[in-house]
Amino acid sequence: MIKNIIKLLLVFIFAMFCEVDAQLYSDHGANRAKGDVVESVSLTQEDDLYDLTIKFYKKVSFVPRIHILPNGIQMFLSFKKPVNLPKIGKQNQGILKGYFFEKFGNSSLMFLMALKQKVEFVKKKYTKDSIKISFRKKPTIVIDAGHGGKDPGTQSPYEKYLEKNITLIIAVELRNALLKTNHYEVVLTRDKDEFVSLDDRIERAKSGNGDILISLHTDYNKDTNLRGISVYTLPSHGFGESDNKFNETLRKSKQFSKFLVGYIPNLCKIKHQACRSSDLKILKTNIPSILMELGCISNSKDSKLLLSKLFRKKVIYAILYALDEFFEKERKTSKRQVVR
Fold first, then answer.
1. DSSP state at residue 283
2. Same domain, 206 and 292
3. What phi and psi, each to the nearest 5 degrees, are found at residue 245?
């Protein structure tokens, strides 16, 4: 008799604890079951800046361990009480390949998010009810080394080198400088002495998910006194004002061109009215694009300068400064939008 009474008391006490726990885990909705800890996962975007937010139900204690991967985020969450596996997942939307939760033991979860592009960590913030991680998509710069293979371009009448070779040298040096900053991804339309058609160059720029294209060339003129650097974008004529995509792409192209031309005079000789426009096919990539004439190969001074590592370094610095300013300005003018 006494044993039965003790059993009934134990059952009653256990039921009371279950009721307390049930109330604790049901603060946010009647569908919440005991052991549910994750309320929602969201991903918001502001231009190239993304915010991952994981919201927890109230009064959930957790210890996070977060690893920022080149192409995603891995997170381990330890809880004081047993937890359920969240039925939350997402696949293939925008930059997102997908994310999901896995359960480890009774009281630990792993969250894994895979991304289509490389990102850099910006900041993270913890509260009692959420984790917020900010990361940024690295802009992809497409570098197009003009000419190549059976298409030699122009030739220096002084040092006898070919345009296709000097553009490739500068393209590789620019790529290395960009990657060294750890702020950019880089796609080369060619990385060796090969012929690549204009159509293939444009396709490589598009398939590389480029954010801006820089096509490198050298100028040539019968007047050997002419020298300096010039920058070309597409002209605005021939397109209606209703073509919003073209207008926005052209606006960005001209903005970057303006920044670039602004840095060059402090470093090297530049042509008068260096911001120019021309209906060049390589600029018709549907991404912001410029063509940069690195100097007049027909001028003896420019021809020698292009062989100078110091001169090429100055040109590369001008491009780096212009890219940094361009993307910083674009981030400030962008509007916030929700992607998940």
1. G
2. yes
3. -65, -45
CB atoms within 10 A of CB 124: 15
Whether the CB-CB separation of 136 and 50 falls below 8 Å is answered with yes
Domain count, the chain: 2
Query: Are 110 and 168 contained in the same domain?
Result: no
236-260 pLDDT, tens digit per residue, is 865 555 578 889 999 999 999 999 9
Residues 184 and 313 in one domain: yes
Q: Which helix (H) or strand (E) holds 141?
A: strand 140-145
User: Which of 137, 154, 177 is the C-terminal boundary of a domain?
Assistant: 137
CB-based contacts of 309: which residues, under 8 Å, 6+ apart? none
**Is there a contact between 288 and 253 (Cβ–Cβ < 8 Å)?**
yes
Q: What pTM value is reported for the model?
A: 0.78
With a pLDDT cut of 90, the percent of the chain lying above it is 64
Give the tens place of pLDDT for each residue, 181-206.
989 999 999 999 999 999 999 999 98
Q: Which domain holds residue 298?
A: 140-333
pLDDT tens column, 9-39 = 333 333 333 332 322 233 344 467 888 999 9
Domain boundary among 78, 105, 137: 137
Residues 6+ apart with CB under 8 A from 57: 25, 27, 28, 32, 36, 37, 38, 39, 129
CATH number of residue 303's parent domain: 3.40.630.40
